Amino acid sequence: MKPGEELDLIELDKLDMGEDFKIILSRVLNGSNVYIVGPPGSGKTAMLRKLGLYLSRAGKDVAYVKLEWVKYGWNLGEYIKHYGVKIKEFVGNDGGMHSAIVLLDDGELLWSYSSAYRNLIRDIRGRQIIAAFREFDADTATLLFGDGFIMYLQRKTATKPLVKTPLGLGFIGKTAEVVVI
Predict the structure, then answer these.
(1) pLDDT greater than 50 at residue 1
(2) Exposure string (b/e) for 87-116, b if CB count within 10 Å is 16 or more?
(3) 44-57 vs 76-91: helix axis angle to the nearest 10?
(4) Which of 50, 61, 55 is nearest to 132 (CA)?
(5) What DSSP string runs through the chain?
(6) Residue 159 above 70 pLDDT?
(7) With bands split at pLDDT 50, 70 and 90, how would you rate the model's confidence at 102?
(8) pLDDT by residue (tens digit) across 48-58?
(9) What residues pair up with 132 in beta bridges, in sequence order?
(10) Phi then psi for 105, rounded to 5 degrees?
(11) What are the backbone dihedrals phi and psi of residue 35, each rounded to the nearest 5 degrees, phi first?
């Protein structure tokens, strides 16, 4: 299977995510925050995107936020302005400032670069959050977004973990290796 980011909406729709997806979809439709946790390659992004597709079809306004794309200090409006077209490609709608549901990808970046996301976090607080994390800090997630259902995915681990940083921050005073997939 291709990584979750490379799937188009038709491929994503056909993807069988199993019982985990059904459980998560049920929780999301009941209004719960959901935190999806797993190693690289476990299907977190694909699951998050498929949830967005299903919610869009159900008439829900969904904002997909990939923290890796957020530049330092951006709020939700700036993110949507820059990535609205890409969001539509990823989940079927372009979300918006007033989306009640936020799909948050690369959530582990919150732990290391919290000041970079201060404005974004301020804008999404109080909304229903469905987030994907490589590493998870339940206490911090609860403080930021509230209680939620945690789903741990354990399938298909990547051979070598990659390090993610927000755009512009990964190269400050460091040498970096860029992997093109």
Answers:
(1) no
(2) beebbbbbbeeebebbbbbbbbbbeebeeb
(3) 90
(4) 50
(5) ---GGG--HHHHHH---HHHHHHHHHHHHTT-EEEEE--TTSSHHHHHHHHHHHHHHTT--EEEEEGGGPPTT--HHHHHHHHHHHHHHHHSS---TT-SEEEEESTTHHHH-GGGGHHHHHHHTTSEEEEEESS--HHHHHHHH--EEEEE--S---SSPPP---TTTTTTT--------
(6) no
(7) very high
(8) 988 888 888 88
(9) 36
(10) -100, 150
(11) -115, 115
**Sign, Cα dihedral of 37, 42, 43, 47:** negative
Sign of the dihedral defined by the CA atoms of residues 58, 63, 68, 69, in that order: positive
Tokens of 57: 């079809």
pLDDT score of 147 more than 90: yes
In this structure, which amino acid lies at residue 121? I
**pLDDT given at position 39:** 92
Output the six-digit token pair for 81: 């302005």
Q: Identity (one letter) of the amino acid at 95?
A: G
Confidence of residue 158 (pLDDT cuts 50, 70, 90): very low
Q: How far apart are CA 35 and CA 153, in angstroms?
A: 11
CA distance 45 to 104: 9
> Mean pLDDT across the stretch 109-123?
90
What φ, ψ does residue 130 adopt, rounded to 5°? Answer: -120, 115
Q: What is the pLDDT of residues 2-24, one digit of tens each?
A: 455 665 555 656 656 678 888 88
